[in-house]
C-alpha cells in the first residue's frame, strides 16, 4: 500500500529496503557537471530551500522571483510576460538558448523560419531545406498545468538553472541548436493556491488534504480541456505563443501521475490514434518517447511504462492539439504528486495495469524495467521529469534539420490533401454572432479563414456577402478536418466486455456543439474574399424610426439574452412574447424580447446592439400574450472539493451578464432559501456527492459534510414555496431520488456501462419550439452527452412537459454511444411542476466546458423562468 510519511515523524526503514527498491533516482546525467557559468543564483538562494525538498512547495510568486533573478544574471535566458491570468497575475515565459541565438536580429530570424516552415506556403522543397539548415529547433516545455500535480512545477527552477548554466557538450549543443520555450507554469493561480494550502497545513492532520476549491478559477482540472476553445486567459496567452508567434516543432507537456505502480508514463500512446493526425507526427512522438525511456533506463531510473491509459484520439489538450498542427506533442505522467514522501509496498501492487492486462511485476515490451517498490520522495519524481526533459531537448538538438523540414513537409502534404473541400458558414443564419465567435475560436488555432466580400453561388445554392469560408487546403488541415467533422470512435472493449474508455471525450465537433450552420462542399467555386485575422462582431441594425410599442430582440441569438439582462438592469420594461410576433423584419418566434420604447431606451438598446452585433427590429403594437421579465435572483450551488461543471457554469453566466450568488452546503442546510433566491442551479454532480460532500476528517470541518438530508429537505421546501430548481445532467438525481412523489424517472439509473455509455459525445435531440425552455432553439438540436440521463414521465402525472426529446433512432451525431436504444425516444429535458414551484431537469451538459453554445438557451431560458411574471 502507499503510506504517507507525516512531516516531523521518524519512519522506520526495513533493513531489506534495498532489496525491493530500484536503482536510486540520482538526478539527470551530469549535463551541468562541468564548470558552470559563474554568478548565477541557485534556486535555493531565492526560494529559501532546494526545489523538490520534502514537505516544501514553492508558490508561483517564489518561482517567478527565481526566474526573474536567473534572467537578470544570465545572457542565456530572456524572460517575458505573455499576459495576465484569470486572477490577474503576470504569466511569464523564458526563452533559453545561446547568447548569439538570443540576439534580437537572430531571434527574429529563427522565429520567422519556424513560422515559414510551419505554414509551408510559397516555398520550394529546396528553399525549405535551406531554411531547415539555417534554422534552430523550437521546443516548448511546460510545467504545472494541473496544480495538484506538484512535481513538474517544483522541477522547473532546477531544470532551468541546469539548462542555463551547464557547460557539458550536451548542454552547449542544446543551447546552440534549440530555442527552448521554457514555460515555468501553465496555471500560475492554481500553483499559488495549492502550494499555499499545503504549506499552511504541513505537519498537521490536514497536511495531505486536497485544496477544497477549483485551482483554476473557472476550469480546475479542465484547464487542460480548453485548448481548441480558448476560453481561459491562460490558454490564450500560451496559444498565442504556440500558434501565432513561435510555432514550435515540438511541445512537451508534463503531468502526474502514472498508472500505478509505474513511476512514469512516456509515449508511445495506446490506441486508438485519431486518423486525422499525420503519420509523421505519430512516428515523431514515438521516437521522442523512446529517447526518454532509454535515458531513464541508462540512468537506472526504473518503472517507465508506455501504451497505457493515454491515447491519441482526443483533440483539446495542451499536448493533443499540437498533434493536429503537425507538431510533436509529448505527454509524460510521473508518479507521486505530493511533497510528502511515501513508502510503496510491492505486496500491494495490482497484478496488472488497466490496459490489456500488462503485468506490473514482470518485464514486457512497454514496461521492461518494472518498479519494485520502496520509499519515494518528491525529489525522485522531479529527477525523472528533468531526465525526460534533457532527453527531449537532446533529441530536438540532434535532429534539428529533421524536425524543421518535417513540419514543412507535413504542411505541404496537408495543403495538397485538402483539394477543393471547403466549409461555408452562411452570413444569413439567425445567430451569426455565435458563428463569428466560432471563427475566432478557429483563428486562435491558426486556421485560415476567408470572408466573402460579395454574394456568391456554389452549385445551386447562393450565399450572402459576409459568409465565412474555411478551405481544407491549408497547412493545419488535420485540425480543420477534426473540428469541423463528426468523430466516429471505434467500439473497443476490455476482456470483460466493458467499454475501453477513451482518455477524454469521444466526439467534439465544433459547429455541432456551438449550434452553427455550415455547408461542406467539394467543388471549385469563384468568390471574392478577404483574409480574416479576427472575426468582427456582425454589423448591428436599429429601426430607422422609434417603434410604436417596443424594440425587439431575436431569441434565436444567444447575445440577445445578454442585452435583455443589461436592459432589465438599467430599468427598462422588458417582456417576452408567448407566441410569434410581427416585426418590421417579418415574423419572429415565440420568446422574442420586447423592450418598451421610453425615455432613453433607444440609446441603451443601440449601445447593446452595437457591442453585440444584434439585429434589432420594431414592434408597432403590444402583443396580447407576454410575460414580464425581471432580473431573477440566481443561486449557483457550489460544493466543496472543486466541481469543474460549476466553474464553467460561472464562466458562462459571467460572459452573458447573468448575476448570480454562490450557495454553499452551509447555506443549503440553513434553509430559508426563498428569501434570497428565485432560481437555484445544481451543476452536474452525483447525488451522493451533493448529499454527503467531502468526508469528515479529509479537510478542515468547514469544508466537509455536504447538503445533508436536512439541506435537501430545504431545497424541496424552496420549490414547494414557488422557487425554481434547475438541474444539469446527473444533478437530476437529487430531485428524482429525494423529492416525495416526484413524477419523473431516469431510465439510465443503475444501468451498467456495458449497456449504456457515452464518454462525451454529441447527440441529436428534437426540441418543441413552443415551450418556455426552448424559445429561440431550432427543432433539430445537437446536445452534449456524457452518459447523460434520459427521463420518462410516470403514468398519470399531469404536471410534467418534455420540451426536448431524443429521436427514436440515429441518436449519435459525433463520438461513441453504447445503448442508444435505451435513450431513444425518451426525454432529454423535463419541466416538472412541483408544489408551487418548478424543477427543470436539463438532462444534457447544456453548458459543457463553455463549448456548447448551441444549448446555452436551455440554461438561459430556465434561469429566466424565475424572473417571469
TrEMBL record:
> InterPro entries per the record?
Class_I_gatase-like, Peptidase_M14
Task: Please tell me whether the keyword Flavoprotein is annotated for this protein.
Answer: no
Record's signal peptide:
1-24
Can you list the GO cellular component terms from the UniProt entry?
A: extracellular space
Quick one: a GO biological-process term for this protein?
Answer: proteolysis
- Record-linked Pfam families: Peptidase_M14
**Entry's CDD domains?**
A4_beta-galactosidase_middle_domain, M14-like
Cofactor(s) the record lists: Zn(2+)
Q: Which residues form the Peptidase M14 domain?
A: 66-227
What keywords tag this UniProt record?
Hydrolase, Metalloprotease, Protease, Signal, Zinc
Which top-rank group of organisms is this from?
Bacteria
Ranges in coiled-coil conformation: none
Q: Does the keyword Zinc apply?
A: yes
State the Gene Ontology terms under molecular function: metallocarboxypeptidase activity; zinc ion binding
Q: What family does this chain come from, according to its entry?
A: Belongs to the peptidase M14 family.
Quote the protein name from its UniProt record.
Peptidase M14 domain-containing protein
Q: Write down the species.
A: Actinopolymorpha pittospori
Its ancestry begins with: Bacteria, Bacillati, Actinomycetota, Actinomycetes, Propionibacteriales
